[in-house]
Amino acid sequence: MTRARGEGSLYQRSSDGKWVGAVTLDDGRRRVVYGDTQSQALEKLRAVRRAVEDGLPVTGDRVTVGSYLDSWLTATLPARVRAGHMKASTLNSYGDLARLHIIPAIGGQKLATLKAPTLRRWLSDLQDKEQAPHCMACARLPVTGARCPKHVDFEGKPLSARTVAYCHAILRAALGDAVRDEIIGRNVAQLVEPPACTHAAVKPLSHAEAAKILATAGEDPLRALWLVMLGLGLRRGEALALRWENVDLDAGTVKIVGSLQRLRGERDAVTGRRRGALVEVTPKTEHSAATMALPALLVEVLREHRRAQRVQRLAAPAWVDDSLVFTTRVGTALEPRNVSRSWAALCLAAGVRPVRLHDLRHSAASFALAAGVSMKVVQTMLRHSRMATTADIYAHVLEDVQRAGADRMDGVLRTIGG
């Protein structure tokens, strides 16, 4: 009997006894469903028919969350990076978290039948999942007992709410693309709320801690880098990408035009390692690119650093890049991870608590606020696009500034009030 397109057919397969339902879609593709019983296959076939009648996407039974994410990470997102709509570092981050926390947990789920309760259980389990031991002195890399026996940090702690929420955001973005590509009919991740994220209190260096570190760094070849990051509140990549043509010591200004990052390449089929490359990318946001005024001390520091670099260049057998402000002994760009390790070692040598290199940026803002610099000026210094971002991060510092102001006003009132 001839059936109209979309009506479908149902029969039992003689080889294994399974029931097979098939329907031809409007675009000519054939959609096949299977069931152990006639009723199972018939129900699946009816679901396909309803989707066809309602104009909804029809997803194959064999498409899993894991297989879809693999294609999304290796085809959809790289095309977005090439088009300039996503940073390569963001793609790396998405891939790491997807392969660590999403695919192992729910990768086997059928994409078409993924349900909200499944995602709620996944998010709940993630909040109980322990992260691998990391070490700040080893640039937050996973460590083994023999490699770093006394610097282990975060061991046994569960994933942060921010990491769990980030995993949810990645899955929501992937499913959103699947809806737009008409692979599935709805984004079930939108029906599930991630855990609430609270910003961890910023713990910048105190004046005493900063003084101890800089005193210890007297002969440190990266002392000028630490001072520039502290004095300007630069991110690590921004500082490492500085070039002399963007530094005007006579005018006392510096232009932030890029950020140095290590981007990972494809995994080597033999060794399993990724071959990466140091590349200069655009700053984090459009507001991050700016011309900043240099404090007078930093002008002196950079003049001395340039003189020392010229001497070093003349003594070197070869010099790779004449333009970079901060380099290795042969003029190559500094490896960001090695810079973080050097900073961690410096904190240890100075007897100061472990402080992330990024906290130099927080310290710069805190010192400025404590010195009476307005929040608006600090926002400009940090190049935040929104005042609310600056105020939210440094609310505790602002409270101390307001208290100090109130104490000074108290003295004024007591003086004039007798």
Arithmetic mean of pLDDT: 81
Q: How would you spell out the order of helices and strands? A: EEEHHHHEEEHHHHEEEEEHHHHHH
Shape: elongated
Compute the number of helices: 14
Between the first and last Cα atoms, what is the distance in angstroms? 107 Å
Structural class: mainly alpha
Low-pLDDT segments, ≥5 res: 1-6, 139-147
- The largest beta-sheet arranges its strands as 1-2-3
Note the main sheet. 3 strands, antiparallel
Radius of gyration: 29 Å
Brief account:
With 418 residues, the chain is mainly alpha-helical.
Describe the structure.
The protein is mostly helical and 418 residues long. Helix content is 47%, strand content 10%. It has 14 helices and eleven strands. The model is unreliable at 1-6 and 139-147 (pLDDT under 50).
Tags for this model:
418 residues; mainly alpha; three-stranded antiparallel β-sheet; 11 strands; 47% helix; 10% strand
Describe the protein's topology.
Layout: E1 9-12, E2 19-24, E3 30-35, H1 38-54, H2 65-82, H3 88-106, H4 116-128, E4 134-135, E5 141-142, E6 152-153, H5 161-180, H6 207-216, H7 223-232, H8 236-240, E7 247-248, E8 253-256, E9 259-263, E10 277-281, E11 290-293, H9 296-315, H10 336-350, H11 359-370, H12 375-382, H13 387-393, H14 395-416
Antiparallel strand pairs: 1-2, 2-3, 4-5, 4-6, 7-8, 8-11, 9-10
